[in-house]
Every structure is written in C-alpha cells, then in structure tokens.
Amino acid sequence: MKAKEIQDLIDFISKSGLDEVNIETEEFKIKVKKNTEAKVVQAAAPAPQPVAAPAPSAAPAETPAASSGGGEKPAASDDDKYVAIKSPMIGTFYRTPNPDNPAFVNVGDSVKAGDTVCIVEAMKLFNEIESDISGKIVKILVDNATPVEYDQPLFLVDPS
C-alpha cells in the first residue's frame, strides 16, 4: 500500500462516522483509530519475508533518529536537572495552533501537567502534545515547522 492510498484511507475515515479501521494482508497490517482526544495512526509491517523490502527502508529512517538523539545527548548531559518533554510520534513540530496565534509556550513560561505545549502533525492529523510534568520551560529544543522523530526531546522543563 502506497503512502497516497494510506492518506486517502485516513481522509475517508475522518469524513465517515467510523472510529477505527483494521486492514491486514499478507504484505502489511495497518490500524487507523480516531478519537476525540488525539488522533493516532499506527502502521506495522509483519515479520514474514515478503515484507523484507520495506524493512530496510524503515531501518535507515530509524538510523537518523539514533544519530539525532546521539547529537542531543551531550546537550542533555549539561542539563541533567531538567526533564524533557518528548515527542510521542513522528511528524512535523508546530509551536502555534496556526500562524496567526502566539506560541503555546515560550522559554520562562510555567506549565502544568496536561497543558498543551505544541502540535505534532502526522499524516495531516494535528495532535496536541501535552506536558506530562509541571514546571518552567527552560529550553525549546526544536525549531517551528521542522520534522521530529519518536521520543525526540522537544522541551526542557525545570520541575522545581
């Protein structure tokens, strides 16, 4: 299944009354689930050998994540007293709900657990990312409208 076909499927589901769709073939397995809190798209390739071609393409995509995470670890070691808010998914990071609005949070702002700190767009679905800790934003680690990886640190928060 091509990316365009997956996007068309997601668009169809978002316009329909369906909340969840599961599709499984010999070559792939896809699960699309829609709810009101957050929209999540999950796709997984099965272990059989016919899927060997997509598996190598997935491995290089994970390699930059490891290298970008490795590049940020020295900076994180300087800031050990801070807690990171990390991206729960792969997508595009946005600091504002739209270009005309101010940023959700800025350096120096106080946040509480559950406050929205940014949006990550994944396949045209805008997912509000909430802080899981309370504290003060001390550093924004990602530029607006840039791609982010799963588990990539987005913000550093001083919990004290």
UniProtKB/TrEMBL annotation:
<dbReference type="InterPro" id="IPR001882">
    <property type="entry name" value="Biotin_BS"/>
</dbReference>
<dbReference type="InterPro" id="IPR001249">
    <property type="entry name" value="AcCoA_biotinCC"/>
</dbReference>
<dbReference type="GO" id="GO:0006633">
    <property type="term" value="P:fatty acid biosynthetic process"/>
</dbReference>
<dbReference type="GO" id="GO:0003989">
    <property type="term" value="F:acetyl-CoA carboxylase activity"/>
</dbReference>
<dbReference type="GO" id="GO:0009317">
    <property type="term" value="C:acetyl-CoA carboxylase complex"/>
</dbReference>
<feature type="region of interest" description="Disordered">
    <location>
        <begin position="43"/>
        <end position="80"/>
    </location>
</feature>
<comment type="function">
    <text>This protein is a component of the acetyl coenzyme A carboxylase complex; first, biotin carboxylase catalyzes the carboxylation of the carrier protein and then the transcarboxylase transfers the carboxyl group to form malonyl-CoA.</text>
</comment>
<feature type="domain" description="Lipoyl-binding">
    <location>
        <begin position="82"/>
        <end position="158"/>
    </location>
</feature>
<dbReference type="InterPro" id="IPR000089">
    <property type="entry name" value="Biotin_lipoyl"/>
</dbReference>
<feature type="compositionally biased region" description="Low complexity">
    <location>
        <begin position="54"/>
        <end position="67"/>
    </location>
</feature>
<keyword id="KW-0275">Fatty acid biosynthesis</keyword>
<dbReference type="InterPro" id="IPR050709">
    <property type="entry name" value="Biotin_Carboxyl_Carrier/Decarb"/>
</dbReference>
<protein>
    <recommendedName>
        <fullName>Biotin carboxyl carrier protein of acetyl-CoA carboxylase</fullName>
    </recommendedName>
</protein>
<keyword id="KW-0092">Biotin</keyword>
<keyword id="KW-0276">Fatty acid metabolism</keyword>
<dbReference type="Pfam" id="PF00364">
    <property type="entry name" value="Biotin_lipoyl"/>
</dbReference>
<comment type="pathway">
    <text>Lipid metabolism; fatty acid biosynthesis.</text>
</comment>
<keyword id="KW-0444">Lipid biosynthesis</keyword>
<keyword id="KW-0443">Lipid metabolism</keyword>
<dbReference type="InterPro" id="IPR011053">
    <property type="entry name" value="Single_hybrid_motif"/>
</dbReference>
